[in-house]
Write a structure and sequence with these properties.
With 512 residues, the chain is of the alpha+beta class. It has 16 helices and 20 strands. Among the domains are: 85 residues, no CATH class; 145 residues, no CATH class; 87 residues, Acetylglutamate kinase-like (Carbamate kinase, 3-Layer(aba) Sandwich), CATH 3.40.1160. It starts with a strand and ends with a strand.
Length: 512
């Protein structure tokens, strides 16, 4: 085995903060910002909550979580908790630098979520082998195309021709990219019928380990900053846990020479060639990066182009192609021309939205079942405050023994109504942006509604008083709940007025 498997120990030293995330986030009210110390403490929430309850502040804490916008540190200080308490709760802490400091005029910045770095089962940061191998894979593909331009000319020409075709974000150039990788790497011939099958990839013989665990002391808090060609910096409201400069990332590369055609020397040459190309054609224009040898670009925030072969392959055409990719992978709103293309290409229904552009319209059906209802019921019966059934997500449908996402969105009002009925609740409170439901909303003869019967509400619905997608589903959900069982009441009001509304002092009350 030792004759054909070569193992190499590799070290990468961070020159700038490195973030490789796993999708986890620390909520705005789940960390303590020690503003003057430029530190952030990530507490054990169970330990912290236990002490809050011991201090008799459980209801105040719930109220804070539901309503207040101040950060957790200010709330804790207001209720006489001290640094010694924070230290007792501490899981770990981060240097925050200027990421959470006050503004130039002395006001505290708005709290933000923190994107977590990938951590192992013991809570220690590490860089996944998949991220490291992805970095190597991109460099090797660019290297292959550079070494054999004629072999890949047809696919590269196809990319140039197709890049301006409007498509979905996750499908943009996916076929062309797959063709390139198949031609470059799928050389083992294990499945002759399906050359695109991953079993044919010679990179199956390139094994890249996860990095060794890294000390929590090597973490810092970094803010994402956009940097323009004219040297201006634009801080974005995005915070990330990141490895501090000078952190060592240690991992191993194993190469099975019976499968992988690349030696360690070729891999290092490909990485170096990729870096020099990226520096000359991209990073140097922003006065970033370096021509120094041995530099690689790893993790989030390095830019789209550090993860693609656009610049190494297309050189002078790279800017045009990149611009076309960004323009033709649609976001939330598109213009009329793009909307028409989407309707023709994908049979989407596109609607203009309040002067902001066009966007896709999908169904928002009434939910028939809440999959996790038994778990929710158990937690409610145990006295917990449960947050569930929110809107805006993707509903699921049953297909045999499996659940599959549907091309629709969950309606929060109907989902809340179903949840309340399943839990046999007496009250359904729908909190929205207005204090009461109104007839002729926004018109000179606008009339606010107080207590109304289900019959009256149904009459108003039939007369078209409520806007679809706005107040209409809220009123329909309130009517459904109030009429579902004797004694049930529904209430629609403003979040800030919820206490007064429950007392009967405001809001629109629905009853049978």
């Amino acid at each position: 085995m030792n004759e054909f498997i070569k193992r190499y120990k590799i070290k990468i030293r961070a020159l700038s903060p490195i973030h490789v995330g796993n999708g986890e986030k620390i909520g705005k009210k789940e960390y303590i910002n020690l503003l003057w110390d430029h530190k952030v403490i990530i507490p054990d929430l169970i330990k912290m909550y236990t002490d809050i309850c011991k201090a008799g502040l459980e209801k105040e804490y719930i109220k804070y979580m539901l309503n207040e916008q101040t950060d957790l540190g200010i709330w804790l200080k207001k209720h006489d908790f001290q640094k010694k308490d924070y230290q007792r709760w501490k899981r770990y802490e981060l240097d925050s630098g200027d990421a959470l400091s006050g503004s130039p005029v002395g006001r505290q910045v708005r709290t933000k979520e923190i994107m977590c770095i990938t951590k192992d089962a013991y809570g220690l940061p590490f860089i996944p082998g998949s991220s490291l191998k992805g970095m190597i894979r991109t460099a090797l593909l660019a290297y292959e195309i550079k070494q054999n331009p004629e072999k890949y000319r047809e696919v590269c020409t196809s990319i140039k021709n197709n890049v301006r075709q409007f498509t979905k974000r996750d499908q943009c150039l996916s076929r062309e990219t797959s063709d390139l990788e198949t031609m470059a790497f799928h050389t083992l011939g294990r499945d002759e019928k399906k050359k695109g099958n991953a079993v044919n990839s010679c990179l199956s013989g390139l094994i890249v380990s996860d990095s060794k665990p890294i000390s929590l002391k090597s973490l810092t808090l970094s803010q994402k900053i956009d940097y323009t060609l004219d040297g201006k910096e634009k801080p974005l409201p995005i915070l990330k846990e990141a490895l501090i400069p000078d952190t060592e990332i240690s991992f191993e590369i194993s190469i099975d020479r019976t499968q992988c055609k690349y030696t360690i020397d070729i891999i290092l040459e490909a990485l170096e060639d990729f870096q020099q190309n990226m520096y000359r054609n991209f990073y140097s224009h922003f006065r970033r990066g370096s021509e120094e040898k041995g530099i690689v670009w790893l993790g989030g925030g390095c830019g789209f182009l550090s993860k693609t072969i656009i610049y190494p392959v297309f050189k002078n055409d790279a800017v045009r192609i990149t611009d076309a990719i960004f323009k033709n992978t649609f976001g939330k709103f598109v213009d009329a021309v793009q909307a028409k293309k989407m309707e023709e290409s994908f049979h989407y229904i596109m609607k203009e939205d309040s002067g902001r552009g066009y966007r896709r319209v999908v169904a928002s059906p009434k939910p028939v079942e809440i999959i996790e209802i038994e778990t929710i019921r158990t937690m409610v019966n145990a006295g917990n405050l449960v947050i569930a059934g929110g809107g805006g997500g993707i509903p699921v449908i049953k297909q045999g023994n499996h659940l599959k996402g549907a091309s629709a969105v969950i309606d929060k009002d109907f989902a809340s109504c179903l949840l309340a009925k399943e839990l046999d609740a007496d009250y359904l409170i729908i909190l929205t942006a207005v204090e009461k439901v109104a007839l002729n909303f926004g018109k000179p003869d606008e009339k606010w509604l107080g207590d109304i019967s289900v019959a009256e509400a149904k009459q108003y619905i039939s007369e078209g008083h409520f806007a679809p997608g706005s107040m209409l589903p809220k009123v329909q959900a309130a009517v459904d709940f109030a009429s579902s069982k004797e004694g049930r009441t529904a209430l629609i009001t403003l979040l800030e007025k919820s206490r007064d509304a429950v007392r009967g002092e405001t809001g629109t009350m629905f009853h049978a």
